[in-house]
Design a protein that fits this description.
The protein is an alpha+beta fold. The protein has one domain: Penicillin V Acylase, Chain A. The chain has eight helices and 20 strands. A nine-stranded mixed sheet has the order 1-2-7-8-9-10-13-14-15, with helices on one face. Strands 5, 6, 16, 17, 18, 19 and 20 form a seven-stranded antiparallel sheet that branches. Strands 3-4 form a two-stranded antiparallel sheet. The radius of gyration is 20 Å and the shape is globular. The termini are close together. The relative contact order is 0.17.
Length: 388
């Protein structure tokens, strides 16, 4: 097994400190390393489990997502537990985001200047700790708290397992899930809040059998090489919301892309478009045309304005990674953004699907004039398998 860990952006004097972990070896080895890290950073301990549900979850993972199943065995080793225990859930190493106002866009290689597919996203989230956030969302006055903001310790995780595929993912606070990522085949996935206008509080039912909303991107990156395989996997997989409902933009290096959405009644939607495909925080199966959008309200977190803006900036001849960055910066959430909640664009990521790279800059705080401070853009690549 080979593991490296380093702070790559920010530090104790900044809003966030970003750690990059590279782990190679077996999936069990990788799961063990991530469990140790989750304990160290987040004080993670496994949640108590319903015995019947714990057994059913292990059986489902073993059949449909063996990579995750093996990493759970590694987590059990790190915790000194029986991997077949029914007393606790051996995943969920961190927490589930309770909502975010993010923007994403994909340019297929046939349309770009250099012929390479580009997927970009802003990750927008609250800048508060958990107690303040939950009180605020409940319409209550937040109690004084010295707790660290939920989003202050994100991770970039590069995994190079012996049984592949290798992946690079970015996560806010859940080390066995992710907010976005790419694998060695050039398949990339990002998640966004799905329905800002009708968003409800976090789902409190706990882990279920199947893939949770925060695990879904990692599930696809572990098990799929192409968009077609991802569609088939999603249509076949048992899924549930843990946190709030999310939707996902999935793209591959060939230029294929789609947005995956699930309705409140369990209906499933594969949304595609000719040319650029954009996604913010409303269901695209209801509102895909940027020229026919409803008006934003206080609750929508400007989803329709952001969608219209990035769609307009993505149109026309010769889009590029540079244009992607400009479009995302145009819808960035900062101190001047009209939003009822304390939030910022915590990072901006641009994936090059041909090169399998992830280039990201991270929010470090606000300057005295209110302008956001960001780290230099860092490029993460998937390395060759390291020797044990």
């Amino acid at each position: 097994m080979f593991v490296t860990s380093e702070i790559v952006a920010g530090g104790t004097a900044d809003f966030m400190a970003v750690r990059h972990i590279t782990a190679s070896g077996s999936q069990v080895d990788i799961g063990r390393a991530l469990a140790v890290e989750a304990q160290r950073t987040y004080g993670w301990t496994p949640a108590p489990a319903d015995h019947l549900k714990a057994r059913a979850r292990r059986a489902w993972f073993a059949r449909h997502w063996p990579q995750h199943f093996a990493r759970m065995q590694g987590a059990a080793e790190a915790l000194g537990l029986d991997p077949d225990t029914d007393d606790v859930y051996l995943d969920g190493a961190g927490g589930i985001p309770v909502g975010s106002a993010c923007s994403a866009s994909f340019y297929p290689p046939a349309d770009t200047i250099d012929g390479r597919g580009v997927l970009g996203r802003n990750y927008d989230f609250f800048t508060t700790g958990a107690s303040e956030l939950f009180a605020m969302l409940a319409g209550q006055e937040a109690p004084p708290s010295a707790e660290m903001p939920l989003s202050a310790r994100p991770y970039v995780i590069t995994s190079v397992p012996e049984d592949g595929p290798a992946t690079t993912v970015l996560t806010m606070n859940e080390l066995d899930g992710c907010m976005e990522g790419i694998n060695e085949h050039g398949l990339a996935v990002v998640l966004n809040l799905a329905d800002a206008e009708n968003a409800t509080g976090p789902v409190g039912a706990g882990p279920q059998v199947g893939v949770s909303s925060g695990q879904l991107p990692r599930f696809l990156l572990d098990t799929c090489r192409t968009v077609q395989e991802a569609k088939a996997a999603l249509l076949d997989a048992k899924q549930y919301d843990l946190g709030v409902a999310l939707h996902y933009l999935v793209a591959d290096r060939s230029g294929a892309a789609f947005v995956w959405e699930r309705g409140p009644g369990g209906d499933e939607h594969v949304v595609e478009a000719d040319g650029a495909l954009c996604m913010t925080n409303h269901p695209l199966h209801r509102h895909l045309d940027p020229a026919a959008l409803p008006a934003d309200t206080e609750e929508t977190m400007l989803t329709y304005l952001r969608y219209r803006t990035i769609s307009e900036r993505s149109a026309g001849a010769g889009p590029s990674a540079a244009r992607m960055r400009e479009a995302l910066d145009a819808v960035r959430v900062d101190a001047a953004t009209d939003t009822p909640y304390p939030a910022r664009t915590l990072w901006r990521t641009v994936f090059d699907l041909e090169r399998c790279t992830m280039a990201t800059h991270f929010y470090l705080g606000d300057a005295q004039d209110g302008a956001p401070r960001y780290s230099p853009e860092l490029e993460f690549t998937i390395p060759a398998l390291q020797p044990a």
